[in-house]
Design goal:
The protein has helices at about 1-20, 25-85. It is an all-alpha fold. The chain has a domain at about 55-80. The protein is rod-shaped and about 125 Å long. It starts with a helix and ends in an 8-residue tail after the last helix. It comes from Flavobacterium circumlabens.
Length: about 90
């Protein structure tokens, strides 16, 4: 048991030294800044994508309303022309 305990203590000391050497504070801060920058870029991309999607939806709704109003206008114009008396050219 004592040998196993000593082995784990030795491995723990080696791991602690390795972690401290590999991931010291400047490296961690650099990695943190890189992650923050990546998240900001993703947020910027999704903001632009959302804005473009919103513009597309607004334009599609505008176009649909325009087509509907044009259809109503032509139906009214057709009905007016159908109800108008015919001109008689029998002179």
């Amino acid at each position: 048991m004592i040998e196993v305990d000593n082995y784990f203590k030795f491995n723990n000391i080696i791991l602690t030294k390795s972690i401290n050497k590999s991931y010291d504070t400047p490296n961690l801060l650099t990695e943190k800044e890189n992650l923050i920058s990546q998240i900001r870029n993703e947020n910027y991309f999704f903001s632009i994508l959302s804005f473009l999607l919103l513009i597309g939806i607004v334009l599609a709704i505008y176009y649909a309303i325009k087509i509907k109003n044009r259809k109503i206008f032509f139906e009214q114009r057709f009905n007016e022309l159908m109800e108008a008396p015919l001109l008689d050219n029998s002179s």
